[in-house]
Design a protein that fits this description.
Elements lengths: L1 E4 L9 H4 L2 H8 L7 E4 L7 H17 L3 E2 L5 H13 L7 E4 L14 E8 L2 E8 L4 E6 L4 E3 L5 E2 L1 E2 L2 E6 L4 E7 L1
Parallel strand pairs: 1-2, 2-3
Antiparallel strand pairs: 4-5, 5-6, 6-12, 7-11, 8-9, 8-12, 10-11
Helix pairs in contact: 3-4
């Protein structure tokens, strides 16, 4: 069965300000009941406001494994498709949510949500800012590249240092 949520809060408010991580984990993800988590998530405003709001929604939704019922949110669906192309949902890819005890990364920085898609030799790590932006430090033995821009992040003293702006997200590709 489906778990529908987020039918309220129309407008162009960033999704990090609409729903807390605790609210999402308690009410939206549907795992407690074995439901498929779908969200309505209406957006309105100028084209620039809608584009930004869709981006904040993409980070919040994908780090919590929520599915948007609106089929015309191209940025969201393109980003989700890149997860599936990586192998998300297959037996070859392990999914780790930031609230799990066994989350494979300790991320130091402002408040955030995150998801790690791990397969042999490669990981996608999506970090979504909830804390006003800043530098996120991630212990890693390898360098990483931003999946969208291709920017390479080198290691300094065993850490990757990644700047993420307020309510933005980054998807890092880590290769072992």
């Amino acid at each position: 069965s489906m778990n529908y949520d987020w039918e309220d809060h129309n407008g162009f408010t960033d999704f990090q300000n609409r729903y807390s991580r605790e609210y999402i984990r308690a009410l939206s993800i549907g795992r407690q009941f074995g439901n498929f988590p779908a969200v309505l998530a209406p957006i309105s405003g100028s084209p620039e406001q809608v584009a930004w709001c869709e981006r904040t929604a993409t980070g919040v939704m994908l780090t919590h494994e929520l599915r948007w019922t609106h089929s015309q949110r191209e940025h969201y669906w393109k980003t989700l498709l890149s997860f599936y192309e990586f192998g998300y949902g297959s037996q070859e890819v392990q999914v780790h949510n930031y609230w799990d005890e066994n989350f494979p990364f300790k991320i130091d920085g402002p408040d955030h949500s995150a998801i790690a898609l791990v397969k042999e030799g490669k990981t996608l790590l999506m970090i979504c800012d909830y804390g006003g932006g800043g530098v996120y430090r991630i212990p890693a033995a390898v360098q990483a590249a931003d999946m969208e821009s291709g920017k390479v992040f080198g290691r300094e003293n065993g850490f990757l240092a990644v700047q993420i702006n307020n309510h933005e997200y980054v998807i890092l590709v880590l290769e072992q």
